[in-house]
Amino acid sequence: RILILDFGSQYTQLIARRVREAGVYCELHPYDMNATAIREFAPSGIILSGGPQSVHETDTPRANSLVFELGVPVLGICYGLQTMTAQLGGTVISATHREYGYAQVRARGHSRLLRNIEDHASVDGFGLLDVWMSHGDRVETLPPGFIVIAETPNAPLAGIADEMRRFYGLQFHPEVTHTRQGQRIIERFVHEICCCGRLWTPDNIIADSINTIRAQVGNDKVLLGLSGGVDSSVVAALLHRAIGEQLICVFVDNGLLRLGEGDQVMATFARHMGVTVIRVDAEALFLDRLQGVSDPEQKRKIIGNTFIEVFDIEANKINAVNWLAQGTIYPDVIESAGAKSGKAKVIKSHHNVGGLPEHMRLKLVEPLRELFKDEVRRIGIELGLPAEMVYRHPFPGPGLGVRILGEVHREDAETLRRADYIFIEELRRADLYDQVSQAFAVFLPVRSVGVVGDNRQYAHVIALRAVETIDFMTARWAHLPYEFLDLVCRRIVNEVPGVSRVVYDITGKPPGTIEWE
Ligand code: XMP
């Protein structure tokens, strides 16, 4: 297993994902992880991430010196290279030319890390690599024992190595996909230099999780709030495989779900997989609570609190439940750890079935805590969940409640459901669904005049939203083909009563958010 020490780069999670993709288990910890914890982790190799600081300023982060004394391979990336250089007796200076973006690196063929990895061969026998650079500082003199393994015109020491101690440093970022050979470099490090096998595979992850879950919960019953989203679905499938009938799922239909969603969840889990699912039809209660409320944050709070209330009532009807399962995944864990230590900048806090009442006193079982989203999806497929469920766009907890602007009415939810269904159906039909990260319709409570047949119509407006994004923190509106938008618009206006006009949202994030409320 590989230990990644995080110096605060925006790419650190990517390093972990690349190592996992190479089939090797890794964990990400803050750069100041203490010596005892490092020893206990017993890494086969250590990666030092990039970071926003400059090593020659005072009080900038350093790796614990144990990192260089354990006798395991170390790979420093960007800031990680620079701190390794400074800590081992070399020097780092501010570069006169900062480098951001694509660069071409000349790699010297003799290093174990880069041997035979190249995008182009150059005339003088060096390999050329197309890489992604993002740095202001550069290594000026090598620490004792190191040699140069890669260079650029602006950074003559862009890659360094001490083959004896198996210490390597790269100024560029192998973890980003713009570095075309990046995955090969990471695989070279973890497989050949750290000697880690490809053991982190979906079937091994499932087998391990099943053992852990069984050991953790024994014969106890486990309760799960099933939403139909990817994470809770995979938790349900995994727990069902591990403990069968001991798992009880509660599925709350709040009346703000997409068309046919409730039936689909029941069909997949209850009928197809034989999971115990209690379906609670709480539409009337939710809509009643939302009556007269138009402020988005207030709507979110009401929906969240009502969910907890309904869930609590159901849970109390079931005897002797000791555990609550949650779909917490590794990025949530990293984010809240970062939030606690104040290191990572936290943009959004995550809650699953957050804030359950104290008196429930359930212990938590979180079988996806170590997994990234793509791993969750892969094990979902391996567990037999349908691909449409596993590769579904995210859907917010408050559901259509934040896609019907202002006050929520039942008939508007019905209108929105039908329009949204057409949009998604056409995206799938045109093979565009997987090319966008999230797409949905929004109900606008304004009326506009239209003509249907010979009649004048004065009806509502539907906005369509489709975005492309990696992390949902920033997003670009999807440039869907005009013909496609034309088709969707015609279908919605013709088939959905109460809609006279369709508009397409071309706002990025920032300045917009993805949802309208
Ligand atoms: P925004 O609108 O903030 O959305 O750009 C970013 C991502 O988060 C989802 N989202 C939510 N998810 N509860 C959730 O579970 C919420 O209240 C909520 N608000 C937004 C949104 O769908 C998008 O994927």
Automatic annotation (TrEMBL):
Biological pathway: Purine metabolism; GMP biosynthesis; GMP from XMP (L-Gln route): step 1/1
Subunit structure: Homodimer.
PANTHER family xref list: GMP SYNTHASE [GLUTAMINE-HYDROLYZING] (PTHR11922:SF2), GMP SYNTHASE-RELATED (PTHR11922)
Highest taxon of the lineage: Bacteria
GO MF entries: ATP binding; GMP synthase activity
Function recorded in the entry: Catalyzes the synthesis of GMP from XMP.
Name of the protein described by the UniProt record: GMP synthase [glutamine-hydrolyzing]
Gene symbol of the encoding locus: guaA
PROSITE patterns noted in UniProt: GATASE_TYPE_1, GMPS_ATP_PPASE
Domain GMPS ATP-PPase: residue ranges: 200-392
Catalytic function, reaction form: XMP + L-glutamine + ATP + H2O = GMP + L-glutamate + AMP + diphosphate + 2 H(+)
CDD domains reported for this sequence: GATase1_GMP_Synthase, GMP_synthase_C
Source organism of this protein record: Chromatium okenii
Chain sites annotated for binding ATP: 227-233
Active site, UniProt feature: 78 (nucleophile), 173, 175
GO cellular component, one term: cytosol
Residues of the signal peptide: none
Keywords: ATP-binding, Glutamine amidotransferase, GMP biosynthesis, Ligase, Nucleotide-binding, Purine biosynthesis
Documented EC number(s): 6.3.5.2
